[in-house]
Design a protein that fits this description.
It is built from 2 helices and 2 strands. The chain has a domain of about 45 residues. The protein is an alpha+beta fold. A hairpin with a 2-residue loop joins strand 1 and strand 2.
Amino acid sequence: MSDTKHDDGGFAFPLTFVFEGTTYDWVPGMTLLDWFAGQMALASFTDCWSNEALARRAYDLAEALVAEKRRRKRGGRR
């Protein structure tokens, strides 16, 4: 198994709040990559794939979405 950290896109639903003049970043556990993968799995659910193939495809698509998001943030062309 590789120790390489994949770009998970950060947290899916970050929340920042201010309490008594101090700003806090609170983030739930789901990453953007996990959120995208779940959405891709749902979108592809009607296809006839094994659970393993569906999970692999969902995360492949999710990784592509995160990579595209990063590219656009860096000013990449659309």
